[in-house]
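Hi R.,

As promised on Friday, here is the backbone we talked about, encoded as structure tokens. Could you run it through your design pipeline when you get a chance and send me back a sequence?
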């Protein structure tokens, strides 16, 4: 399973990713500056007011809230603006 959790801004997505990464006890947050920092991959759309999406996998499904589980989508929105390299 790979599903997306859509955020209205990159900042919101990165903040949520940092929250989950800290809670998971990733080595970066345990004091290792070269350790793993991010739990999830983030996709950010192109444009002036980009949205961002966090990729949620089976392994990390239990790290999101019930409200976030309800908000998961199978695909990026149809109006998602891809960067030129993604097209």
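Update: got your reply. Pasting your designed sequence below so it's all in one thread:
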């Amino acid at each position: 399973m790979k599903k997306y959790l859509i955020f209205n801004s990159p900042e919101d997505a990165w903040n949520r990713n940092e929250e989950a990464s800290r809670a998971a006890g990733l080595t970066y947050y345990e004091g290792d500056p070269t350790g793993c920092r991010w739990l999830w991959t983030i996709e950010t759309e192109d444009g002036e007011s980009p949205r961002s999406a966090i990729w949620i996998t089976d392994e990390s499904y239990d790290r999101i809230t019930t409200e976030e589980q309800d908000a998961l989508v199978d695909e990026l929105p149809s109006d998602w603006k891809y960067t030129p390299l993604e097209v």
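One thing I noticed while checking it: Strands lie at 2-7, 42-44, 52-57.

Thanks again,
M.
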